[in-house]
TrEMBL record:
<dbReference type="Pfam" id="PF06056">
    <property type="entry name" value="Terminase_5"/>
</dbReference>
<feature type="domain" description="HTH IS21-type">
    <location>
        <begin position="5"/>
        <end position="66"/>
    </location>
</feature>
<comment type="similarity">
    <text>Belongs to the transposase IS21/IS408/IS1162 family.</text>
</comment>
<keyword id="KW-0815">Transposition</keyword>
<dbReference type="InterPro" id="IPR001584">
    <property type="entry name" value="Integrase_cat-core"/>
</dbReference>
<dbReference type="InterPro" id="IPR010332">
    <property type="entry name" value="ATPase_terminase-su_N"/>
</dbReference>
<keyword id="KW-0233">DNA recombination</keyword>
<feature type="domain" description="Integrase catalytic">
    <location>
        <begin position="119"/>
        <end position="295"/>
    </location>
</feature>
<dbReference type="InterPro" id="IPR017894">
    <property type="entry name" value="HTH_IS21_transposase_type"/>
</dbReference>
<dbReference type="Pfam" id="PF22483">
    <property type="entry name" value="Mu-transpos_C_2"/>
</dbReference>
<keyword id="KW-0238">DNA-binding</keyword>
<protein>
    <submittedName>
        <fullName>Transposase</fullName>
    </submittedName>
</protein>
<dbReference type="InterPro" id="IPR054353">
    <property type="entry name" value="IstA-like_C"/>
</dbReference>
Length: 450
């Protein structure tokens, strides 16, 4: 087999008038090989098969099976052709599928990368795109498990985006994130765009759920649902997701609270996200902040949609419950117990209930992340009494101290000895007699009977 470089040299020398024998001696090849390449009977870089093509009889079957099922595993197909008489190895089989390009392209299952993409116009104030981002390995102090959730909202026209950290993706957390992020973005666009998340629509049909329809009416926006498997439709927020994960979350310190992390994200968006330059029309550029300030956004309602956020908490030994960067008291009997904390958005208080659902405390809501301790006066008094009642003022025992048995222990020991040594009158004939008076009584009895 000639290399491509040798094939080029052979054709060039032939064009210069060299004979086949001279070219063969120059390249160190056989004359028949040189002649075959000069006559285009062989292709440079392609080795001539050593024997018959043993895969050729199976090509039609393999092509038909992969046309029926483009995702059929090669090992499954290999089992089928082996049963039909295929005698070569599995690596040879998969190589033949690749080199012959027998597996067809499946358009519905292919990724969006590489597809033709049309430019989608986003008029100012028209659309806000929303998406959840799962962030792995949050700080252990958050108590969120292995995953944190970030709701990202981006103005499609200007590219301005903000995010909201949440422990879950339920509808109450979604509504809370929508309200807070919308206020950070500066207002409402005409429509909100989502993918097919179950908290917004029915994933199978794309129809908005009844519960989220009430949310959309409260904020006065239209709801646009992306077509299935069309990630390009939310390209602005998808890029923001990538930025949030790689430029902010990746470098977040492990010793920050949730509120500190949220403040860090807001600063990042203001300093980095809003400073990006984008095309502003007529060949000019402007920052994201400048373009966003020109967008005609509608004002946000004065109160959020009244969804109720509910989360489980463990009461501390001081009968305190942590919630949004603050601490709220409960009766001392619930120390180290599991409780449920609920907050209705827009309401100025927070409720704490037992596992059975009984509300046992209601406190005025403190600003998130303030680090304050909100305690009911009755809870403080009850906790002090509970602690004092269980406090023992006795001197603790020394490790090397002589403490002999006391009167109670000696009396109990005497009772045990008496129990183990019963009276001789109660013994039967089989007992061992050690009293000589018993012998005397027995002898007198025999004399009387005689």
């Amino acid at each position: 087999m000639l290399t491509r470089e040798e094939d080029i040299d052979a054709h060039a020398l032939r064009r210069q008038g060299w004979t086949i024998s001279a070219i063969a001696r120059h390249l160190g090849r056989d004359r028949k090989t040189i002649r075959a390449y000069l006559n285009n009977e062989r292709v440079a870089g392609v080795r001539k098969p050593a024997g018959e093509d043993r895969f050729e009889p199976f090509v039609d079957y393999v092509r038909a099976r992969l046309a029926e099922d483009p995702h059929l595993w090669a090992v499954t197909l290999f089992d089928e052709v082996v049963a039909l008489g295929y005698a070569q190895s599995y690596p040879t089989f998969t190589r033949q599928i690749r080199t012959r390009n027998l597996r067809p392209h499946c358009e519905p299952c292919s990724a969006t990368k590489g597809r033709p993409a049309a430019v989608i116009e986003h008029p100012a104030g028209e659309e806000t795109q929303w998406d959840w981002v799962e962030l792995p390995d949050p700080p252990a102090s958050w108590g969120w498990g292995k995953t944190a959730h970030l709701l990202v909202g981006a103005l499609a026209h200007s590219g301005r985006w903000r995010g909201h950290l949440a422990p879950a993706q339920d509808q109450a957390q979604l509504v809370d994130g929508l309200d807070k992020t919308t206020r950070k973005l500066g207002g409402l666009t005409h429509k909100w765009r989502f993918d097919r998340m179950a908290t917004v629509c029915h994933p199978e049909t794309g129809r908005v759920t009844a519960t989220f329809a009430a949310v959309a009416k409260h904020y006065g926006v239209q709801v646009a649902i992306c077509p299935p498997r069309r990630g390009n439709r939310k390209g602005v927020v998808e890029k923001s997701n990538h930025t949030a994960a790689q430029r902010w979350w990746r470098t977040l310190s492990d010793d920050v609270s949730v509120e500190q992390a949220q403040a860090s994200l807001d600063r990042f968006c203001e300093l980095r996200g809003d400073a990006r330059l984008r095309a502003a029309g007529h060949g000019g550029k402007a920052s994201v902040l400048t373009i966003a300030q020109r967008e005609p956004l509608a004002p946000v309602p004065s109160t959020p949609f009244p969804a109720t956020i509910t989360e489980d908490r463990t009461v501390s030994a001081q009968a305190l419950v942590a919630w949004r960067g603050n601490f709220y008291s409960v009766p001392p009997e619930l120390a180290r117990a599991q409780v449920t904390v609920s907050q209705r958005l827009g309401e100025p208080h927070v409720d704490i209930a037992t596992a059975s659902g009984i509300v046992i405390a209601r406190h005025e809501l403190a600003p998130a992340g303030a680090g304050v301790m909100v305690r009911d006066h009755g809870h403080v008094i009850a906790l002090e009494q509970h602690v004092l009642a269980g406090h023992d003022t006795s001197r603790p025992h020394r490790k090397k101290e002589r403490i002999p048995p006391g009167p109670a222990a000696l009396a109990a020991a005497e009772q045990l000895r008496a129990r183990n040594q019963p009276d001789s009158h109660d013994r039967d004939d089989g007992d061992v007699v050690i009293d000589l008076g018993a012998y005397d009584r027995a002898a007198q009895g025999r004399n009387t009977l005689t």
